[in-house]
Amino acid sequence: MYNYLFKGKIFTFAHELGGGYKVSTNEAEQTTHYVLISDERAEEIRNPQVKERELTIEEVRTIKLQELDYHDKSDMVNSFIFRENVTWLDRDTRTSLSITAQNMHDEGYYYMTYWVNGSPHEITCEDMLNLLRRVELYAYECYQVTSVHRININACSTIEELENYDYRIGYPDKVII
Asked: Using H for helix, E for strand and C for coil, what is the string for the chain?
């Protein structure tokens, strides 16, 4: 059997094409010629399959580092519990609230209002400063753990090591107030 490619279609004949047909072996000429192709090539054209390629170690490393960054920014890391409410304060907010709580305390205020998820909570200025210290230390410890994970991921020398590396471990217990 002889397979010919012509204008993107495969034609199979019991004999070779002869006189009267423009025949070639160059697939680039398939719009004007019948191109003689092997059985394997005919099968590839009939049943195209996307060939999956293996990821390189650098691609796997990049994916693992992206997963770590996502985890680090998620509430799996960036959250604490205040009176049964899961919440988080970014660094700028922690700094601002710390200054405010200290100023209020210095000016003789005993209570301040701390807003959590749209609800007001009365808290002493001293307790607020304590909460902010604990959350700041928690954030610092999380940062250290994430930094170590980043170094460890970059040090992995095989794809298997990268695939088995668990960046979710080692984080401190959440602050609960």
From this structure: CEEEEECCEEEEECCCCCCCCCEECCHHHCCCCEEEECHHHHHHHHCCCCCCCCCCHHHHHHHHHHHHHHHHHCCCCCCEEECCEEECCCHHHHHHHHHHHHHHHHCCCCEEEEEECCEEEEEEHHHHHHHHHHHHHHHHHHHHHHHHHHHHHHHCCCHHHHHHCCCCCCCCCCCEC
